Predict the structure of Methionine aminotransferase.
Amino acid sequence: IVSKLPQTAVNIFSVMSALANEHKAINLSQGFPDYPCDPQLIKLVNKAMLAGHNQYAPMAGAVELRERIAEKADKLYNAAYNPDTEITVTAGGTEAIFTAITAVVNPNDEVIIFEPAYDCYAPAVKLAGGIVKSLQLHEPDYRIDWAMVRKLTTNKTRLIILNSPHNPTATILNEQDIKELTSLVKNTDIIILSDEVYEHLVFDGHKHLSMAAFRELKERSFVVASFGKLFHTTGWKIGYCMAPSQLMNEFKKVHQYNVFSVNTPMQIAAAEYLKDENHYLGLADFFQQKRDYFREALAATKFDLLPCSGSYFQSVTYRNVTDEKDSDFAVRLVKEFGVASIPISAFYSRAGNESVLRFCFAKKQETLDKAVERLLNL
Ligand code: GLN
C-alpha cells in the first residue's frame, strides 16, 4: 500500500504514555489531568442518560449546548455567534481542527504553520493535498516574526494556523501580534484556524486574545475550543468550533460525514454545567498555582525553565545535563529516572534536536512532588 502519510508515525503522545505505563513512570508527557473532575458533572451525565438523552444529538450539537457556547463567547469575547448557523460541537478539538482544514484546503493551497506546532496540523493539511509552509519560532520566547510571515505569504496562501495559548511553548499572542495579523490578512482571502483549546489557562493577569474578539479577524476565523480542558475531562472528547456562517456551512459538510454528531448525554450535561460561569472563570488561578508550584520545585533541578504564560505545559532546556537528542533523552528519563515528558522535536517537521522537554503540570501536587524528587537525581 502506498502510504498517504509516509513521514507520519504513531503520535508522540501515544508513544510516551505507553512507555510511561510500561515502566510505571510518572506520566507528565501527554496533557491530561490525573485528578478527578467535579462529581457534579458526572451526576449531570447520569441524569441526562436516565432522562432518556441516549439517541443521536442534532448534527451540529445539542441545541442547549450551542446556546450556552454562544453565551460564553458573547460574555468573554463580546462576540456574536448564531448557535444555529455558526457553532458546531465536535469530537474534541482535534476533530474540529481536522474538519476545518479538510473543509477549506484545496490541493496545492498553502497553509502557514508555526513550528514547534501541535502535531495534528500538518498531517491534516497534507491529506487535503495542501502544502505546509512552516515558519520557525525560537526559544526562549518563541515570538512570531511577522515580517517573515509576510514573506511566506503568497496568493496561494489559503490558511494560517494559530495556537494561543501555545502547545508546546506556553506562549500567548499579544496585542501587537493581533495588529500585525490584522494588517497581514486585510484585503486577502486568507482564512484563520485558531486553536484556542487553552483559552482559560492564561496567567499573570494577561487576557486571552481570541480571534472571536476582533471583528476583522472573527469574520475569517475558525475558533476551536475544548471541554476537556474546561472540565478536566479530556477523555470525554468534546469540543467545539465557532465560525461565521459561510465557513461553518462548509465545516458542517465535512463534520456530518465524519462523526455526524457527538454523544448526547455529555452534551446535555455540559450545557447544564456551563450555566454557572464560575465553573470556568477560576481555571486560570487554579492552573497558575500549579504552574508556580511546579516551577519553583523544578528550579532546584539542573533544568533551565522556559517561560510559561499559558496552557498546562512547562518546558525546560537541559543543556547542562547532556547533549543527547531530546527524543533519546526523553526515553532515558522514563527508563532510568521514572518520569515521562514530551521531546519538543516531535513538534517540528524537520528531524533534529531541540534539547527541550515539555512537562504537563495538570497533576495532583503529590504527583508533581514525586516527579521532581526523581528529577533531582539527574
Ligand atoms: N493535547 C494533548 C497534549 O498536547 C494530547 C492529546 C492527544 O494525545 N491527542 O499532550
Notes: The chain has 15 helices and 13 strands.
